[in-house]
Amino acid sequence: MIREVIYSVWKYRAFIFGSVQKELKSKYQNSLLGISWVILNPLSMILIYTVIFSQIMQPKLPGIQNRFSYSIYLCSGLLTWNLFVEITTRSLRVFIDNANLLRKVNFPHLCLPIVVVFTAIINFLIIFSIFTLFLIVTGNFPGLVFFAVIPIVIIQIIFSIGLGVILGLLNVFFRDVGQLYTVLLQVWFWLTPIVYTFEILPEFASKFISLNPMAKLIIAYQTILVNGQMPNWEDLSFVLVVTILLNLISIKLFYKHNGDMVDEL
């Protein structure tokens, strides 16, 4: 089944890359600032949170070295969180938004979430490259340990794909899923140590949040980018297991309900 998915994606790679290119062009072609919005949206959020929380949180950041520490801490969480949100929220509606295409054109329907993922990755690479440049210019680049971010990003993307496909399928049959997930994301954000540190939480809360896969991923990013240290790979093994399970479930659900999904649309 997994082999079939990989083969389908490879066979229709021209369709996928053409769709990504078309989507990026259509998104920014009528905008005065164009692709700059990829940078401006997360930047505005970072500035707001930095102004509000820096005086409260910075003295409590472990291993603070300079005045940029909290901004780096915040960017490490927000930029990667936004990648997760973009993949899952757009996957949530990807089948509904492309209902006409699904009914008229014969192609592997899993290509649509892949288009969403590639578009999100391009947006993420743009803003994260600028963040990396900021680390270099301010003398906060963590060195070779920086490249430990790569496997963590890969795990996060695959985790987001699995969850996004499940949400997208459920949303076809139960339209309340979209509204429910919007609320869940708001709660999920505050259950993830992005604007606060894991260390300040009481014991009962830290045990609960430690079951949050996104919390483990965000902490791994912060460990690398703020402290310049390798993350706890043992903690990430839990996320990897959850990721594998999510993707197996999503593929099974997709092939079981693919036909019904088209009829429902």
What does this structure look like?
With 265 residues, the protein is an all-alpha fold. The chain has one domain (35-264). The chain is built from eleven helices and no strands. The chain has helices spanning 2-11, 13-28, 37-57, 69-97, 99-104, 111-137, 149-173, 176-190, 203-209, 213-225, 233-264. Helix 7 (149-173) runs parallel beside helix 11. The longest helix has 32 residues, at 233-264. The relative contact order is 0.14.
3D shape: globular
Overall mean confidence score, pLDDT:
83
Domain module count: 1
Following the backbone from N to C, one meets helices and strands in this order, namely HHHHHHHHHHH
Question: How many E strands?
Answer: 0
Helix fraction, binned, reads: over 70%
- List the quaternary state of the chains: single chain
Q: Output the structural class.
A: mainly alpha
Query: How large is the radius of gyration?
Result: 19 Å
Fraction of residues in β-strands: under 5%
